[in-house]
Amino acid sequence: MTFDTTSPQFRQDPYPTYANLREHEPITLLENTTMGLGRAFLVTRYDDVVTILKDTRYSSDMRKVGDTSQSKWWMPKALTTFQNSMILVDDPDHRRLRDLVHKAFTPRMLQDMNGVIENVTDELLEKMAKKGSVDLIEDFALPIPLTVISDMMGVPHKDRHKFHKWMGTFLEITGGSKLQMIGKASNVFQLYRFFKGLIKLRRKDPQDDLVTALVQAEQDGDRLNEDELIAMIFILLLAGHETTVNLIGNGTLALLENPDQLHKLQNQPELIDSAVEELLRFTNPVEQIAPRYNLEEVELSGQKIPKGSRILLGIASANRDETAFPNADQLDITRTPNKHLAFGLGIHYCLGAPLARMEGKIALQRLVARFPNMQLAVKPDEVQWRTSMAVRGLKTLPIWVS
Ligand code: HEM
Q1: Distance CA 39, CA 389 (A)
Q2: What is the distance between the alpha carbons of residues 90 and 308, in angstroms, rounded to a whole number?
Q3: CA gap 392, 245 in Å, rounded
Q4: How far apart are the first and last CA of the chain?
Q5: Which of 8, 41, 94, 295 is 20 to 30 A from 136, comparing alpha carbons?
Q6: Distance between CA atoms of 200 and 214, rounded to whole angstroms?
Q7: CB of 356 closer than 6 A to ligand 1?
């Protein structure tokens, strides 16, 4: 089966294609993947994705199989430096890097952020009430995680929208061609310079924030080198807001498209925890996770995959697999059990999951309570999705609130 992962039709609604692949070609060989990265196998069944995430024969580190496809001469340094991030390496390096920051993300530490999230949410809801007609992404879903991760990391207020714009371009690149990537390289370069500037600022002017803590870890000696430091700031800022914005944005759209579920949540606010889990499963804020590389020949769903292949894991597809979720294409905010893979599985399980859940819960609960009659201001098939293959999110979401 051939299909174009960058086509607008696929972006608009990838689920029918994924269903077809799961049934007929669960291990799909893609000859030309985005960014000019060549061939890869796309895995779409729930059980296969789980197997890969639990098995140490699959590595996150492309260097172990001699794959240099992501460090070609024409690639911006920001992209190649990113290879040093915890998400793209295996233990023990992965564990060393994760341990440097994991304390900042435990549920107990995050209790302090609860008040910040509630205040930002309420301020935004007030502003929206005055406007009546809003873009839910720009006016609500984005500023919440952007403010929270920027506060935690110590990004100055004046820089927040700038780095968001550059990161957006970085994500678009992941869904585009090699030519598009080269065309947008200057944006990625600016992003890299921004990280360097932030590091310099916190060396000179230390604060009680994560960038300062990381800069100090680097200065302490051999716990973190400079490329790893940049990669760490990059992954935390990127994962900290470009994912949660989609949980809130896609989640709101899914509720508006399923009014029975929206009303159920409005009438039973105590369902918010299971509603957030179901919205994660159903809307897939992250569509495809970091590629894995098999260190030996393997067989999945009856197909052999040669040693050293690049394997793409379609978690958005796995989360709609009927064998794992009865009536998988239906939104059911009371669904139990709900062993979705929206936060991944295994050693790379999302570090920010408790924070993302807290943000999603506060944002969605207060939104549906504050605007019980909110409505889509465009037809459902007119909403525009972003081009990234890594995340699944809306460009804008025009709604009426009252
Ligand atoms: C709804 C929001 C979010 C979703 C759906 C999400 C999803 C994921 C997924 C699927 C992974 C695994 C990637 C892999 O195995 O290749 C991951 C890893 C990660 N996430 Fe999240 N994430 C979210 C929010 C956040 C937030 C708020 C942060 C905070 C900074 C964060 C930080 C990270 C980090 C650092 C990793 C890498 C962990 C490791 O390699 O050990 N995420 N996330």
Answers
A1: 15
A2: 15
A3: 10
A4: 47
A5: 8
A6: 12
A7: yes
Residue count of the chain, please give it.
Answer: 402
Sign of CA dihedral 209, 239, 160, 234: positive
Q: Which two tokens stand for residue 38?
A: 């060549």
Are 243 and 283 within 8 A, CB to CB? no
Say if CB 104 and CB 210 are below 8 A apart: yes
Task: Convert the pLDDT of each residue in 170-179 to its tens digit.
Answer: 777 665 556 6
352: DSSP letter: T
- Residue 296: phi, psi to the nearest 5? -145, 170
Residue of 80, 111, 86, 79 lying closest to 214 (CA atoms): 86
Give the Å distances, CA to CA, from 115 to 207, 358, 362: 20, 11, 10
pLDDT, residue 37, reads 63
Whose tokens are 């992404």? That residue is: 137
Cβ 24 vs Cβ 43: under 8 Å:
no
Q: Where are the domains of the chain?
A: 8-400
Query: What b/e readout covers 254-289, taking b as 16+ CB neighbours within 10 angstroms?
Result: bbbebeebbebbeeeeebbebbbbbbbbbbbbbbbb
CATH code of the domain occupying 8-400: 1.10.630.10
Say whether the peptide bond before residue 107 is cis (omega within 30 degrees of 0): no
Query: 348 in ligand 1 pocket by Cβ < 6 Å?
Result: yes
Q: Residue with structure tokens 């291990």?
A: 27
| Nearest ligand 1 atom to alpha carbon 145 | 27
Say which amino acid occupies 385. Answer: W
Global confidence as pTM: 0.94
Is residue 345 in contact with ligand 1, taking CB distance under 6 Å? no
343, 355, 362, best to mutate for ligand 1 pocket (most atoms within 8 Å of CB): 343
Reported as a single tens digit per residue, the pLDDT across 70-102 is 555 556 666 778 888 999 999 999 999 999 998
